[in-house]
Amino acid sequence: MSNVDLILPLLVAVPILMATVPIALGLRFDRTGWGVTTLTTTGLLAATAYLASAVYSEGMVTHELGGWPREFGIQLVADEFSTLIALLVIATATAVLAYMRVGGPRGNTFYAGYLLLTGGLLGLSLTGDVFNMFVFLEIVGLATYALIASGDGPESAVSALKYLILGTVGASLYLIGVGFIFMATGTLNMQVLSEIMPEVLAQGGQNLVLMQAAFAFIFVGFALKVAQWPLHTWQPDAYQHAPDGVTPVIAALVSTAYAYALGRLMYTVFGPEFLTSTPYLTEIVVTVGCLSVLAGSTLAVIQTDVKRMFAYSSVAQFGLVVAAFGLVTETALIGGIIHLLGHAVIKAGLFAAAGVIAVSYGARTVDEYAGLADNRPFVAGGTALLLIALIGIPPSAGFIGKWYIAVGSVQAEMWPVAAVILLSTMLTLAYSARLLEKMYFTPATPVESPHPSGPVATDGGHEGGDGDDAHGSEHGDESAGNVGASAFTDAGRIGRGNPDAVSFGMLALVIVAAIVAVLLGFAGGELYDLLDPFATEVFNE
Amino acid sequence: MIELLASRYAYALMFVLMGVGMYMMIANQNLVKKLIGVNLFQTAIFLFFVAVAYVEGGSAPIVPTEGDPGAMASPLPHVIVLTAIVVGIALTAVGLALIVRIHSEYGTLREDTLREVRADE
């Protein structure tokens, strides 16, 4: 335990500082953004792994910024829960870069935004201060709006503005909640708050009412940010119109980090005792979660656009996480966290697969996926595995999360949640099976497959990507845009995408995500043990 | 009730302002006015923090070198409001940039026209 706590401020500061580097270098050199970003995230991944080894062997690591005591200053905290999310954030951010090398949006300013997003997400997961959390919420939000708007079409700007307005309302409601917490307790540090909460509960009266109001504002604010029904309306648009390279990051990380923040506030700041003693609180949280599960799954079933379908599926999966947080049992809490982790891996893989299929096969709607397995067996196989994991067929990441949540719901004697989990699994099966059936059992119509069938070009695509470098960045931007646009409008008429547009890295991301999603299914017990200290501490206070 | 309102008028005003901001955000068809509504909504929250920090007869939280400073306002909400204002400015800038992009692509700032244009495409 020498200076391991110094990693905490570095994890937040380095990506934000490095975000300026691509822009500065961009004045002289054209395509430095990807290199700088990859170096930064890989370094941070190593640092986070070191931090994680310290946290999981010796317990919580804290750092007080500038040496100010935590009552006045800002504290960064890495415990079992936040380290897991930080590790997920930085690993996904690094992995998706493999996709962006050839497939994603280019340009130095884009990578500046990407690093800013990474820094914001790491800050959000490591902060130990409720107001600092608001600042990171907004940093993440700003970077997300900018990244979504970096899409080719004007639609992305419209959906980004919609997200901006709704996201700002969500963050502002959270800020009001912070105001109420400050009024009631006079402190903003989470650990201090968790120590004060039993007193506030015991005293009752005005301060308790203030805390209840704070919880109401915070919960509604986060319900907006995490996209809970009926506040989810920004999410399908944002996910659908974001560039293919950006959607995996946003879908896997942004809402996950917000859900983490909600869980952190519910369990560290307010505490299980507050949650259970406040009338109707757990009932409302669980109801909102369950309604999101049902509404999201049902809406996903009727979608024709694949990215939009996955977006509605995210509404459902986050509903499950929120419902798990509302159950207030140790098993359900850990189940929610594991489901958060598994869902992030699965969705990152699925959205990356959707991007690969869009450029290589020209398919964006469910019907266009016909015959995919014959023409692009690797990406179809990866997608199929990820879909199976999403449904929750054991052993997979989707299964263990749902299993623990279901067990937790039985422990809490909230039986309807178990029924909702079963029903949502059926609905997930409905929309996943539709896609699987199209990919594997519907032959492609002759007009739609002019290319001879064969494996996805891996080496050729990679070399093509390297060759692209010579053309300079502005040309790279154009060609990427055209591939996307022609695939979208002319699918089935002129040709079906270009298999060479897929690099080895893009395909590898899908395959690796699929493998990790399955492997996580075997790691359920280990994950439970890792998170157990956090849950025990929360519930025994 | 009247007495409560008279002593807590700052909070009441804040919620009225928030409501006005929210209404502007929802009911206005003009995108720029929507963004102004978002700003108003945020400003109401800043006023809320200022009202929280107000101390009857308190002085500015600058510690003098000698003597008893007496009652002081808490500096923390001021710092929070300053930070939140900066965040709000950044948000407004990004929002306006997006509106400029939308205007150059669709040639309109009105949401209903925008919906029609998008439906036609």
TrEMBL record, chain A:
Localisation per UniProt entry: Cell membrane
GO molecular-function term, one example from the UniProt record: NADH dehydrogenase (ubiquinone) activity
Region described as Disordered: spans on this chain: 446-482
GO cellular component: plasma membrane
BP-aspect Gene Ontology terms: ATP synthesis coupled electron transport
Main location: membrane
Transmembrane segments: 6-27, 34-56, 76-98, 110-127, 133-151, 163-184, 204-224, 245-267, 279-302, 314-338, 344-363, 375-394, 414-433, 501-523
InterPro entries the UniProt entry points to: CPA3_Na-H_Antiporter_D, NADH_UbQ_OxRdtase, ND/Mrp_TM
Basic and acidic residues: compositionally biased ranges: 460-478
Domain NADH:quinone oxidoreductase/Mrp antiporter transmembrane: residue ranges: 128-428
Bilayer topology annotation: Multi-pass membrane protein
Keywords: Cell membrane, Membrane, Transmembrane, Transmembrane helix, Ubiquinone
Cross-referenced PANTHER family: NA(+)_H(+) ANTIPORTER SUBUNIT D1, NADH DEHYDROGENASE
Protein name: Mrp-type sodium/proton antiporter system subunit D3
Lineage: Archaea, Methanobacteriati, Methanobacteriota, Stenosarchaea group, Halobacteria
TrEMBL record, chain B:
Annotated membrane topology: Multi-pass membrane protein
UniProtKB keywords: Membrane, Transmembrane, Transmembrane helix, Ubiquinone
GO CC, one annotated term: membrane
Subcellular location(s) per record: Membrane
InterPro entries from the UniProt entry: CPA3_antiporter_subunitC, NUOK/Mnh_C1-like
Pfam family name, one: Oxidored_q2
Top-level taxonomic group: Archaea
Membrane-crossing segments per the record: 6-26, 38-55, 75-100
Classification via NCBIfam families: PRK07375.1-6, PRK07375.2-3
UniProt name for this protein: NADH-ubiquinone oxidoreductase chain 4L
Source organism per UniProt: Natrialba hulunbeirensis JCM 10989
